[in-house]
Design goal:
49% of the residues lie in helices and 5% in strands. It folds into two domains: 59 residues, no CATH class; 135 residues, Lysozyme. β2 and β3 form a beta hairpin. The longest helix has 18 residues. It contains ten helices and four strands. The protein has 237 residues and is mainly alpha-helical. The protein has a two-stranded antiparallel sheet with strand order 1-4. A two-stranded antiparallel ribbon has the order 2-3. Belongs to the transglycosylase Slt family. It comes from Paenibacillus borealis. InterPro entries: Lysozyme-like_dom_sf, Transglyc_AS, Transglycosylase_SLT_dom_1. It holds the Pfam family SLT. One of its GO terms (cellular component) is membrane.
Length: 237
């Protein structure tokens, strides 16, 4: 995500690079955060097999089988994924979505400081980085809230990979956009993603007008607004 207002191109999140574990990228290039779709059943079977092998003393050469049950195995995998938002149920293979808690205090603090709803902050972080603080987009945006270097510098963020700095800076920038557009959230999100210049060119004054003229924004930004809405539903209190 490129939130640098000067970046007219707004190429956004075409590719992701995890500075610590680049092997954890999906086919789309975005850092993956778990097992989805049809692979869930396969993953469940793997958990069950590992659990049974552990219980009977068997081994397939993997250190994961030293765990006593499938739940423990899932927890280890969850930790290896860097504390993502997904944990795995028992050997039934059920996937349970839980609210990320690693940055809960930072998010709550930034929300109170800048007046941005907690669920909106979490939705932005989820959409931007899947709660991985080490990713870099092909446009050069960095960290949890995907700050461009110029924007980060302007916000006083010296290390965009530091979650505390990144969240504080990203939420402050988002609060600027909310104030700019009188609390119209979709307009603020469009500005966060594509830059306020793109939004201003549409000549719209509220979210309803923005959505009626959404085709005037880059396709990435159109999809971005929808992704935020879906993600926000999971974090609503």
């Amino acid at each position: 995500m490129a939130i640098n207002p000067a970046a007219a191109g707004g190429s956004g999140q075409l590719k992701w690079v995890d500075l610590r574990s680049s092997s954890m990228k999906g086919a789309s290039g975005k850092v993956t955060s778990g097992v989805t779709g049809s692979s869930a059943a396969e993953f469940a079977a793997l958990l069950q097999q590992a659990a049974l092998q552990s219980a009977t003393g068997g081994s397939n050469g993997s250190s994961l089988t030293s765990l006593t049950d499938a739940s423990s195995l899932g927890n280890l995998l969850w930790q290896q994924l860097g504390g993502t938002a997904e944990t795995y149920g028992g050997i039934s293979g059920e996937i349970t979505q839980t609210m990320p808690t690693d940055y809960e205090d930072l998010i709550q603090t930034a929300s109170a400081k800048y007046g941005v709803p907690v669920d909106l902050i979490k939705a932005v972080i989820d959409t931007e980085s899947s709660f991985n603080p080490n990713v870099v987009s092909s446009a050069g945006a960095k960290g949890l809230m995907q700050l461009m270097d110029g924007t980060a510098n302007g916000l006083g963020v010296t290390d965009p990979f530091d979650p505390a700095q990144n969240i504080d800076g990203g939420v402050r920038y988002l609060s600027y956009q909310l104030k700019r557009y009188n609390g119209e959230e979709n307009m603020a999100l469009a500005a966060y993603n594509a830059g306020p210049g793109r939004v201003n060119k549409l000549g719209v004054n509220n979210d309803a007008e923005l959505m009626a003229n959404l085709s005037g924004l880059p396709k990435e930004t159109q999809a971005y607004i929808a992704k935020i809405e879906r993600a926000r539903a999971q974090y609503a209190v």
